[in-house]
Amino acid sequence: MLRYIFLAILTLVAGNSFNPVSGQKAYKAIVANATRELIPEGIAVDARSGRIYVGSMSQHKIVVIDSTGKSKDFAYVNDSLPGYTDISGLKIDAHSGLLWAVSTYIEGRSYTAQLNAFDLLTGVLKEQFTVKDGARHIFNDLILDPVRRRIYLTDTPFGAVYVVDPAMGSITILVKDSLTAYPNGIALSGDRWLYIATYSHGLLRFDLMTKKLAPLPGYQNSEMAFNLDGLAYKDHLLYGVYNSAAHKRDNALIQYRLNAEDTSIVSENIIDIGNPIFRKPTTLSLVGSRIYLLAVTNIDEFNANHNSISGIENQLMPVTILVYK
After folding, report:
1. What is the pTM of this model?
2. Which top-level group of life is the source organism from (predicted)?
3. Can you tell me the distance from the alpha carbon of 37 to that of 282, in angstroms, rounded to the nearest whole number?
4. Could you give the CA distance from residue 186 to residue 325 in angstroms, rounded to a whole number?
């Protein structure tokens, strides 16, 4: 059974919470120096440096937390423009020394969806791919394909998955289908299977070789399978974050064990459910034997306040990351 651990890069605060699944204790791991108003959605952890990168939905920026637990501004996206910038999924390309981040700039009814690449050390913008054609586009999450050197990303309201080829400087639709309505998290198994979490048809698998799309069969709990946010894959295990429970106590971190071919689910395990720390958990990052879960985001409060933190500052909880081993 996975268990919670506390790392020195996070700040321990008073008060433990009981893990209802494993019976072990969980620690509140609050991001040092990160304001409650950050409203984070995406997280990425650099395996080499231990740095944690977190994007903001409210402040046009990405912050980085170093090995001492201190956080500072890392990069800004559209900060000089008057509209609202939603920074969502983050992924690290250690080979190229880049942090890839999806964002959407919204001004009135105009939507500009972007994939940004920042230098991992300096935060300097190195590349940017943009979709703006009059439709409602919101880039949500992404995954890197180290074999093909491409990036796949989900566009939730447009109901599509895009593919970016940095070498060619291109961004094109990989798949847009009735099955891919409202896609969210995305994960990759080797050089073949792309997994997509959708709010319309649950978990999907897309064959990068044959270009065939199909539901991923074998799940037990359809409510969770159709309401997953972040996804991550490692060694025939697919991890998902469920955050759409009518009662927040039912939000969960789930592990799906796949068959040897990675084509279907053979078992389903709830790692953590009903953790009192959870406040709209969203995405996770797998590094070695650890899972970093963005457990407190305050997104529900932010959305209910019309994408604003004005007037609700006292309702927000400190940004919190839970680390599982």
Report:
1. 0.91
2. Bacteria
3. 16
4. 22
